[in-house]
Amino acid sequence: MLLTFELEGGNFSKAGYASSQVKKVLKQLSVDPRIIKRVVVALYEAEVNIVAHAWRGKVAAELEADKITLVLKDEGPGIPDIAQAMQEGFSTASPAVREMGFGAGMGLPNMKKNVDELDIESRVGVGTTVRMVTRFRKEV
Known about the structure:
Helix content is 36%, strand content 29%. By secondary structure, the chain is of the alpha+beta class. A 5-stranded antiparallel sheet has the order 1-2-3-5-4, covered by helices on one side. The two termini are 20 Å apart.
């Protein structure tokens, strides 16, 4: 099953829509609630990053019997130093984004903590692609 969503940079009212829809589907599939929480936290953080930093982006959630693969691709400024961006507390969020309560520099570290695999590719001035995989087992 493949679910897709589009995100618009700066539109914080839509951040979280993809994660809420994915959560509904995972619940319907009787995925362990602990796994659902991990997936939703990682996806929400990724959505907020696109809304806060990029011009636009797309989310693809591919559900398989044993895992979910999330791919988020944006058009934006890119990440010049991914290792630095992965450090807790590092943020390039604008003052306006910080005033809304975002941009604490925990997004990428929280994503990494909540998934089994995280891969980030970025080109400055072009955009960023984030791939996250979380494995699960349906409860019987």
